Model the fold of this input.
Amino acid sequence: MSGDVEGIVRRCLRGDERAYRELVERYQPQVYSLALRMVRRAEDAEDLTQETFVRMFRALDRYDPTRAFGAWLMTIASRLCIDHIRRGKFRPIPLTRREPGTDEEYSIDVPDLGLRPDEVVEHQEEERRGQELIDSLPPHYRIVVLLRHQQQLSYEEIAEVLTLPLGTVKARVHRARALLKERIARMS
Done:
């Protein structure tokens, strides 16, 4: 663990609230990003991010400083996300929303990417298809794909985060890629 984070953790264990806030501010973007990619709903991702930090705080006295703190925290987050999905609380995000109390629908605004409208639509469609493919994977495959490609963790870091043998991580990434290739081939 880097000396900076080690010091913050020690301050947390002594009851320093500011140190706890520092840990949250430092790791919240990563935890939220992982949760959002896993559950695909901002509200659920926010809840899971908050629960991750609550659990982190409760378990901080059991944290092993020989482990990377970020990996330990991502372990907590990834397990919460997988449990959330298994409980069936996963709900896809609609692209259009209905105004409460009316029949009016509005669509979610898409930021200007500097592309022509047809390119934007094509890009969105590819993103949607790609995310649907990843979402269709079982949670234990989805998490390794997201950690590997979205969080850009090494196989060793993923093994540490998920507390799995390195060979299992490599096999899951390989199998997830094979499943994605099969599903892409069926779409063609």
About this structure: The beta strands are 96-98, 105-107. The CA atoms of residues 53 and 59 lie 10 Å apart.
